[in-house]
Amino acid sequence: MFAFLLLIFSAPLPFVPAPFSGPAPGISVTKREARNIECTELSEAEAHALYPGQVSEPSVRGGYITHRAVSCKTRVFGTDERPGRDEAVLSRLTETVAELASAVDEPALAGANWMVDAFYPDPSVAAKLSFAAKVALAERGRKVSDRVPVLAAGDVLVMSRMPAAKAYPLACARFFAEGALGTGDVFLGVIQVDDRETILHAGLCVNGGWRWVR
């Protein structure tokens, strides 16, 4: 897999430079290759944690010059290889999970044990959605568990034949009744209700009661 790390050194000047968006097409990078490269800007501490052999540990004293880095990698799937629906969902992944985390950021649930699962046709995309949502919640100080509630095969079969508006509230009630969720647990479901849409929905299951939050 192609990957490189670009170090940026900037002094505190009275302007903010435009964010680095990745390598531009040119002699060494074609337009197709550039579209398939994803870049993330990192602080010096983050870059050191991810690439300790390439980025030195930040000085405890700090300094006049600010060090930042941009990490670039090729996509697992090119922009023209992934289905359009999946590409549209994943291209807004960061914004989507940030919106979800904000929507469920309720003081009454601050001390709860959070569980997250994503319901999406492609399992690999579902895993990305679930992981990103967990990270977004954890960044807000929520206690997030890797465990997810499960139902008996018979329950799953019955609910698979029901519309989402009825299936998820029933699943929530069953989670609580069967002990998969307790009084201190909150379950966040990230859901694609219609296979044709690229908008993700979400719901909360608390004490056996389901409510849509998006």
Could you explain the architecture of this structure?
With 214 residues, the protein is of the alpha/beta class. The chain has 2 domains: 3-74, no CATH class; 84-212, 3-Layer(aba) Sandwich (Alpha-D-Glucose-1,6-Bisphosphate, Chain A, domain 3). 33% of the residues lie in helices and 23% in strands. The chain is built from 7 helices and 8 strands; from the N terminus they run βαβαβααβαβααβββ. Strands 5-4-6-7-8 form a 5-stranded mixed β-sheet. Strands 1-3-2 form a 3-stranded antiparallel β-sheet. Helix 5 (123-139) links the parallel strand 4 (113-119) and strand 5 (143-144). The longest helix is centred in the middle third of the chain and has 17 residues, at 123-139. The protein is globular, with a radius of gyration of 21 Å. 22% of the residues are buried. Residues 7-22 have low confidence and may be disordered.
Please describe the biggest sheet, giving its number of strands, its sense, and whether it closes into a barrel. Answer: 5 strands, mixed
CATH architecture field of the largest domain: 3-Layer(aba) Sandwich
Which outline best applies? Answer: globular
User: Proportion of β residues?
Assistant: 15-25%
Write the layout of secondary structure elements.
Layout: E1 3-10, H1 31-35, E2 37-43, H2 44-50, E3 66-74, H3 84-91, H4 93-103, E4 113-119, H5 123-139, E5 143-144, H6 153-160, H7 164-177, E6 185-191, E7 201-206, E8 209-212
Helix pairs in contact: 4-5, 6-7
